[in-house]
Amino acid sequence: MSDDEHEEQNTQYESASSGASLSYPVQCSSLRKNGFVVIKGFPCKVVDMSTSKTGKHGHAKVHLVAIDIFTGRKYEELCPSTHNMDVPNVKRSDYSLLDVTEDGFLSLLTSDGTTKDDLRLPEGEVGDSIKAMFDDGKDVVVSVVSAMGTEGVVSAKESSGPK
């Protein structure tokens, strides 16, 4: 064996990711209302689901209506009940709000005491309520959902405990 071949065998490959997948497959018929599903590449929450029987040689079909968990956009999907669909790995975390910057970013306190400054103040009702509570000097707890490599603020509430 030459030195080049020997060197190739001892090469180590390093990875920065945890190895966890962004989604996992689930049979379409086992999806449930209020569960999560990936439709057209977007993580969604199932709001309506119906199963229909087809003709003599057909398969039962599942009709899914779901809403994107980040944008609120509605998606529909029709798939055979025996086929697999992807379900996103969804993680929800709560953070204490420290500051709302002038350029629209949130400064959040994590559970280990570090700050997280990469999330933008959401538009619409949630963003307005965060801004109003913060401007009133209230302690605000922000809920952040992460799925498919994306993070977004989904809700906020006034903290009941000490800061």
3D architecture notes:
By secondary structure, this protein is mainly β. Helix content is 11%, strand content 48%. The chain has helices at residues 3-9, 125-135, and strands at 23-27, 36-39, 42-52, 61-68, 74-80, 84-88, 91-100, 105-109, 115-120, 140-147, 150-158. It has a five-stranded antiparallel β-sheet with strand order 9-8-7-10-11, covered by helices on one side. A four-stranded antiparallel β-sheet has the order 2-3-4-5, with no helix packed on it. A hairpin with a 2-residue loop joins strand 2 and strand 3 (42-52). The longest helix has 11 residues, at 125-135.
β-strand amount:
over 45%
What is the strand tally? 11
Q: Which regions contain 5 or more consecutive residues with pLDDT less than 50? A: 11-17
Number of helices: 2
Overall form? elongated
The H-and-E topology, N to C, reads as HEEEEEEEEEHEE
Major β-sheet strand ordering? 9-8-7-10-11
The radius of gyration is: 22 Å
Q: Determine the N-to-C terminus distance.
A: 64 Å
Largest beta-sheet characterization: 5 strands, antiparallel
**Structural class of the secondary elements?**
mainly beta
Q: State mean pLDDT (0 to 100 scale).
A: 83
State the share of residues found in helices, binned by percent.
10-25%
Q: What does this entry show, briefly?
A:
With 163 residues, this protein is mainly β.
